[in-house]
Design goal:
The protein contains seven helices and seven strands. It is α+β, with helices and mostly antiparallel strands and 221 residues long.
Amino acid sequence: MRRVSVLVALVAAAFVAAWLVFGAGRSVAAQDATPVAAAFPLTPDPAECQVARRPVEEFVTVITQATPVAVTPGAATVDVPVGELADEETVAAITATVREIIACFNAADFGRAFSLLTDEALRGFAAEEPIPEEELRGFLGATPEAVPTEGWTTILAITDVVVLADGRVGALVASLDPTQPEEGPTTIHLTFVQVDGRWLVDRVVEFHTHPEEEGAATPAP
């Protein structure tokens, strides 16, 4: 299902290629890479997906409020916000959120995975890739069946965790989905906002590191 795969790829994708683009140990803003409170690569077990699942109707209400936007193919650059390097406690908290999101994808529990996204992030997905209500209810309300072990997504790295001027936190995240070997590592930048003491994904910027692909984009320096 293309719509589902797009949503999953945007959140469960990774940034090893971005790591290579920027240079290992160098951040978007030419800063030293942020130390992380985890050993990479790591493959979250589906059992780590413990976040409380939001009701499906809440998702439907939020996502159907999205205003469709035209996506311009062939963009040459994307903007990545920069800020001050985050402290170790913040890095650990961001890592925990990413780890649980990937655990939920490995559990095929998309309702729980999307519960770690803000309404703004959900509307952002729907604006680019509208989903019919019935399909959305089926997707988020289905009984999870964990992905076979050989298909679990692995987090390859989390780096450049920075505190932005508005108090949100940005990070580059890299993962590899073994069920999509032709894709290889893909690239995203996540922006997080703290809600009720926990960091949730508030914005996703996807990177393409293969310029020959239609619609490919590379990070702006």
